[in-house]
Amino acid sequence: MSQIRLNHICKSYQGTDLAVKDFNLDIGEKEFIVFVGPSGCGKSTVLRMIAGLEEITSGELWMNGKLMNYEDPGKRNVSMVFQNYALYPHMSIYDNLAFSLAIRKVPKKEIKKRVTETARMLGLEQLLDRRPAQLSGGQKQRVAIGSAILREPNAFLMDEPLSNLDAKMRTQMRVEIAGLYNRLNTTFIYVTHDQTEAMTLGTRIVVLKEGVIQQVDTPQNLYDHPASRFVAGFIGSPSMNFVDADVLSDASGIAIESAGDGVEASNASNVLELKLNDNQTAILKRFHYEGQEVTLGIRPGDFILKKNAGGQKENVSQAFPVKVLSSELLGSDRLVYFMWEGVKCVADISADDEVARGDVIEICMKLDKIHLFNKNTEASIFAHGEKLAQKGVSDYEEV
Amino acid sequence: MSDIVIDVREKNGLEMSAEELKRLHAVMSAPGKRKKTAKKILLVAVNTVVALFILLPLLYAVSIAFMPSSDLYTMSMNLIPTHPTLDNFREALTKVPLVRFVLNSFLVAGLITFGQVISCSLAAFSFSFLEFKGKNVLFMIVMATMMIPGEATIISNYLTVSSWGWLNSYRVLIIPYLTSAMGIFLFRQFYMSFPKALYEAAMLDGCSNLRFILTILMPLTKSGIGAMVVYTFINAWNMYMWPLLVNGSNEMRTVQIGISMLNSIDAQSITMMIAGVVMIIIPSISIFIIGQKQLIRGMFSGAVKG
């Protein structure tokens, strides 16, 4: 039903720097798009430009083939759920829900039917006579969502709708929103800084930083193949570990100097060499990384204790000793912090492996899961290489 | 009493019975309670004295209004009428058309108040919710007009309205006062603390600006409107200089001007004049009493957030 296209959208406030730079995105029908990024990255601004609450400085916004830049917010047929609910405090819940329909001159009978229907769907029937002040945060947000649904808009815009709720309520509402999306089958555009919400809700996620799109991809791809060091560090919790490494001169592997970490290195040269698989080597070779410095990224969950490494089918690196700075038990998992290459790293291991502070443990990495980033551009070498390979580009210039 | 305290204190708190605990509570809190009561009595006493002191002229005026002239002109101090009479009121009402004056004042003050609430809330809305070029400069200009005293413009205003042939009419009393910078400022302060998300939500609901003002903004800023109504009405009711200047005929006189007609050189009666004054201050005082809560809340609620 709804297809939204953002074409070279820019936003600047009173001639200052661009808050949103050259934003291009095609949103298809019935997609659940999540904008995610640190605060001040422009994600809310983009959403508000789609809603018509902010003027678009330059670029075009298309909805269903119509240019929407100069259309009033009320005429865009989108509805928005705000962070602070934005319910009219002097009206009953019923009137709050009915307000937008009453403005559109929907007959009273029809309004009543739709309001009761929606209230039943969201479990608000008992609250229709109350005022917003008499409701809890979760109920208020449900009313806000209800009044958004009632209008049957082309797209739902949600601006951090769960951030004012407590942790338990947030999880519950998250599930409800996911259920709603499945039931309504409409385009959702959702802004959040919470990556759990982004990962669980979105069909596609847009990662933003300083007003620039970093990556647009499905949650799984974003997690497995981050396009840049920023995305890699932003998505996933605890976040990815980054250490400096050198590509070997034949690109068959990378070397990490592991000296000075409070542990006597096991091999004489103090250098840990990781052997890469053929595919990885090919990409490194194609883009001429032989002998260059790169940044190695590895997720906490891709570390593995040496004693558990035997049964792994995956390609596991040789073990190296690290000294445990602290160990946190999170129920089923255990987070182990250690210094490696002068950087504080964290490994996510099984809770069954008892590791205490001050222990020296032997740890390995799942080699197929490592990420390498260009030191200057911070772009992911493997992700970029694979993308170019798909396009049939064989040159190295673009990395 | 004190030995009870010591007695109870020797025991551990956990060992005390409910009875003992209650007694201990009563004993321990007695001095604090006494202190609080004494403070309250002192406060009420001081307030009463100050209030009496401030209200004395007003109360004395009310008292004089009920006195026959003979009561006032004696050697003894007569604070309370010895032979209360309503003659003064009767005389004041027959001597000048006071009822007409009061109606005039009500009409003028009422329309000015209504007009100011409408115009000021609309102006304040655009200054706080809408974005347009030169908004801040325009607002500063509006605020700057508050610095010009009314007396400075009164002659040019008079010349303007007289050249239009507006003298001796209601419109000359009402139209020049249909908006005020103070009112715009007051409303704007209110609207600044109004959550902007509500406006945005209304816009997305397809609500027009006018409808937003009428159905959402105004109901939610009732206290601000109340403050504005009281403030404007009293000001308009007490207008003196302008009505005196522009209206000469009896029919158009407002009550503040009309009352001075009681003070004629040939027949001076202080008691009658005071009776007239007492009658005309009743509306403004009652409006203030009715609206004082709104006024005080309104004056300050916009100023400090929270």
UniProtKB/TrEMBL annotation, chain A:
Superkingdom per UniProt: Bacteria
Example GO BP: carbohydrate transport
A GO molecular function held by the record: ABC-type transporter activity
Key words of the record: ATP-binding, Nucleotide-binding, Transport
ABC transporter domain location: 4-235
Signal peptide range: none
Any Gene Ontology CC annotation: ATP-binding cassette (ABC) transporter complex, substrate-binding subunit-containing
SMART domains: AAA (SM00382)
Protein name: sn-glycerol-3-phosphate ABC transporter ATP-binding protein UgpC
Organism of this sequence: Roseburia porci
